[in-house]
Amino acid sequence: MPLVPAARLLQHAQQNSYAVPGFNFHNMVDLQAIISAAEAEEAPVILMATEDTIRFVGFDYIQGLAAAAAKGSSIPFALHLDHGRDLDNIVKGIRHGFTSVMFDGSRLPFDENIRLTSWVSDVAHRAGVSVEAELGQIPGHEDNVSVSEKEAGMTDPALVAEFVEKTKVDALAVAIGTAHGLYKAEPKLDFDRLEAIRKETTVPLVLHGGTGVPDAAVKKAISLGICKMNVGTDLRLAYMTSIRTTLEEQEVRDPRVLLRIAREAVIEVARGKIRLCGASHQAGKI
Hints:
The protein is an alpha/beta fold. Helices cover 50% and strands 17% of the residues.
C-alpha cells in the first residue's frame, strides 16, 4: 500500500476515538518490526525518524526502506520527520517521500513559532504532506532534542486557537505533563489542561513522551482528544535489552541472530502499544 499523509490517519482516529501510535525507528530492523506489529494488529501506524536518525541512516536509505515497506505491506502508514528544527531537513524530507513533517518551534517566541510553522505548512501542503507543530515544551531528552525541566512549559490553552488558525497545521503536539525518555517518577498528566486545549481547536492532538505513561492515563488522554501517541524509548529499551540479555546468556557469532531477537522484542512492545491506543483492526476501515 502506498504511504499516506499522517493527516488522513489522524482524522480517522479522531472520528473513531482512538490514537495512531507514532513509532521512532533507527534502522531497518526496528522499521521491519514496527511494520510487522502493525500488520499483526491490522493497525495504521506512523513511522518516525528524528534528525539524528536521518544523519545516521541518510535520506536515501530511509526513503528506500519506507518504499520497500509500503510495497510489501497492506496496512496504511505514514513516514514522519519527528522534531524537525532544521528547515533544510524538512524540505529534504518532503523531497525524499516523507508524508508528514514536524516543525518543532516550541523553543521560539510565540510569534516566531507561528511565522516559521506557517512557512513549513505552506511548503508541505503544496506537496500533499501533513504538518505537525508543537506549542509548549516537553522536558527530557530524545536524540538531538533536549529540554530541561526548568526550560519546559505547559501548553497555554489561550494561545492554541490563534496558533492553529494562523499556521494551518494538521496536528498539534501539546505539553501536558509528559517527558521524553525515562521518567524519574510516575508522570501526572494535566487532564484539565488537555480538556481546555480541546475546546480551543478541532485539530488532532499529539502526545509526545508516551513511554512510561500509565495505561489508564493514556486511555483517558485519548478520550479527551489525543489522536497520536509517540513512542520511542520503549522500543529502544526492548531492542537493546534483548541483545544484552542474549549476549550474557550465550555466545553468539552471527549478528543476524541478535537482530532477529531484537526484532521480535520490538514487535512485542509495539503490538502492546497499538492495542493500548485502540488502533487494532482499524487499518481496513481507512
